[in-house]
Amino acid sequence: MKITEESMNQQNLPQEPVPKPESEPKRSELEKLKAMSWKDRVWYIQAYYKVHIALVIAVLLILQVVATSLYHSTFRTALYCMIINSQSQEEINLAPIQEGFAQYLNLGKKDLINAESNFITYGDNANELSYATMAKVSALIFSKDLDIIIGDADTIRHFASLDGYIDLEKDLSPELLSLVQDRLFYAVREDGSEYACAIDISSTSFSSDIHLGQDPPLLGIIINSTRRENADALIRYIFSQ
Length: 241
Prior knowledge:
There is one protein chain. By secondary structure, the chain is α/β, with parallel strands linked by helices. It is 46% helix and 15% strand. The protein is built from ten helices and six strands. Strand 4 (184-188) and strand 5 form a beta hairpin.
């Protein structure tokens, strides 16, 4: 090809830019989802938003726990009673203590009486559940949350050997002691001495209404109870009916 001055000038002329293909307008996430099938939407959300969803759920759960804790902090425990080893064929009825006794004390709506029923076996017959329940009872006593144990003789003897109950002959008022003097149950404490650690509450309306099945049902007041006034009131309530 013959190179001329004219051809050289043509090569040096500025070239017109090649037009770029027009890009599609950027779609929002909502528009993307609307254009998908339900199956694709589920996959897309799981692929791109599962971490965000997990974080939102975690935040909601934390807020729920905090809100529940704050709400429960407005309540006051008036008495905590644990029933152990009731062998009744009838289901335990906690209404006499949670409702009847609460009414007797004239408690407010945010004054709670906690009551629960558990089973414990001792010695060679103890199983993992028994050890877990004993640990729970011990923790409640240590934290001064438990006030009353209503149990069978084995239960009363077990915790009496750990100095778990008050000495009723020394620590009850003369008025209350006169009500239960002929119903005292004696067991051996840790140092080997015997003391009145529980009250036989069999043949009472309270025992019958709750369907207590121990033979006999024995009530002991925990030695470090911080609600002794209400624990004593329960004894008065049981024997004044």
